[in-house]
Write a structure and sequence with these properties.
The chain is α/β, with parallel strands linked by helices. The chain has helices at 3-21, 65-74, 92-95, 98-105, 116-119, 131-140, 217-228, 246-254; strands spanning 25-30, 33-40, 43-50, 53-57, 84-86, 108-112, 152-154, 162-163, 172-175, 184-188, 191-195, 235-238, 244-245. The structure holds zinc ion.
Length: 255
């Protein structure tokens, strides 16, 4: 199959999945907490608002800056009002617009120290977990991100987690290596933002699925199991599709 045909297939899959199944919308609205998911090309960006603070989690693909800004404004979120940008990891579909938001709005960028080298253009090793993943990996080969320095770099385990009180928000960022060395998981109330630890389904976004790219599947299951032991979490928000109910994640692990 020609690369253009594969790209068209991948784009069609993405459009079907994100256009009809994963809308950009508020996914939690409580008196003291609002979470808005902004979806561009199947890459989720979350804006979390709590205690007068706005946190952006992940930054999508390079080139999608204007589309994320448009979606922010559609949900009455001025980009300049966002206090910080937290990256679940340094892959191009999560850190792609970070340099732009850092430069344009002065957002402080937080991420795992283990991914800083990748963000500077180092090797981003990926291991496809299916035929579709191989196609996606091939269609994305050559995509690079404008490099930048993390303003706050979370040290790897066994370093302690980072309290989001540093930016005025109740919540904790944990080093959660596996998908990449610098992957992190952020817990805010009953919500966990898990990056590419797991993903939702293409046809049913709420169905837990093994992520497209994972080099050690046993370790991945161990990391998922480990996160399930943290108390008080009901919902996982992955980088692609979702959200996932923790009971569904437990059932997925038992399969
Ligand atoms: Zn990734």
């Amino acid at each position: 199959m020609k690369k253009s045909a594969v790209l068209a297939l991948a784009a069609a899959l993405s459009a079907t999945a994100c256009g009809f199944r994963v809308p950009s919308e508020p996914i939690a609205t409580q008196p003291d907490l609002r979470i808005v998911r902004l979806n561009v090309a199947s890459a989720n960006v979350y804006i979390v608002e709590q205690a007068g603070t706005r946190l952006m989690i992940d930054a999508g693909n390079p080139g999608d800056e204007a589309e994320y800004e448009r979606l922010m404004r559609e949900h009455d979120i001025a980009p300049e009002s966002i206090d910080a940008l937290l990256l679940t990891h340094g892959h191009a579909d999560h850190a792609g617009t970070a340099r732009y938001f850092q430069d344009t709005y002065g957002m402080e960028v937080i991420g795992g120290a283990g991914d800083q080298e990748m963000i500077h253009g180092g090797d981003a090793k990926i291991c496809p977990t299916s035929f579709l993943a191989r196609v996606i990996g091939w269609s994305r080969s050559g995509i690079t991100i404008p490099p930048f320095d993390l303003d706050m770099a979370l040290e790897p385990r066994p370093a302690p987690p980072l309290s989001l009180q540093e930016i005025g928000m109740p919540g904790v960022v944990w080093p959660w290596p596996g998908h990449t060395d610098g992957s992190v998981v952020t817990v805010i109330g009953e919500h966990a933002f898990v990056g590419d630890l797991i993903r939702g389904g293409i046809l049913d976004p709420t169905e837990p699925n093994t992520h497209f790219f994972m080099c050690d599947l046993e370790e991945n299951r161990e990391r998922i199991r480990e996160l399930l032991t943290l108390p008080g979490i009901t919902t996982w928000h992955p980088g692609h599709f979702g959200p996932l109910a923790v009971d569904d994640v437990r059932a997925y692990l038992e399969d």
